[in-house]
């Protein structure tokens, strides 16, 4: 039995999506693809399919703390990935967990809306994430609509949202693709003033779990020790391939193919 080449462990604090398109299943699959081991800690249960989310329930903080503490006591955590939190109390719960993981990279995916448009938490949850979690995060990965909510700029551009949000977080990746542009531009803003743009061809259709896929892949790359700019590019390239090869098993959005066929 090989105990010398263990895969980096990423603690995932996310919601469960019964359709398997987003949430913890997306985290697990994307991290396996990076050569990492996912430690999935459930923060919320949802009622959703590939069309939209209709309801959700946030778990009691004691259950979330118990899950996370059990993993932290047993496994060497190399990175933490945040997905759906769903309540202000869960934001505070994550802060308590991170106190046990000083120096561990934290990727914060501020999940506020499902791909179908349904809410996964009130806007006050987003503001709590901005005020409380962003300062301890290594990077936040909102899409442009989420960045507009967090920056309180309903019609703001990516640059305008970044100017408002960078005082809260060290690195900010604002993903594009929510307009009708032929080329999708994803922008990485760093507090040191540097900016990096990554372009890709726009793919047809809409996708369920693309943000989860990206944030999880990024957390995996950071867990492997990749530097920030390279990790972002690798995660974006991987996510684009997952979307290119996506399938439509249900009546709604496409689900990214995060694992090769021979791994499924």
TrEMBL record:
Enzyme class (EC, first level): transferase
GO MF assignments: kinase activity
Domain of life: Bacteria
Involved pathway(s): Cofactor biosynthesis; thiamine diphosphate biosynthesis
Signal peptide positions (record): none
Domain Pyridoxamine kinase/Phosphomethylpyrimidine kinase: 17-253
Keywords: Kinase, Transferase
Keyword Ribonucleoprotein: no
Keyword Kinase: yes
EC assignment: 2.7.1.49
Protein's name according to its UniProt entry: hydroxymethylpyrimidine kinase
Species assigned in the record: Serpens gallinarum
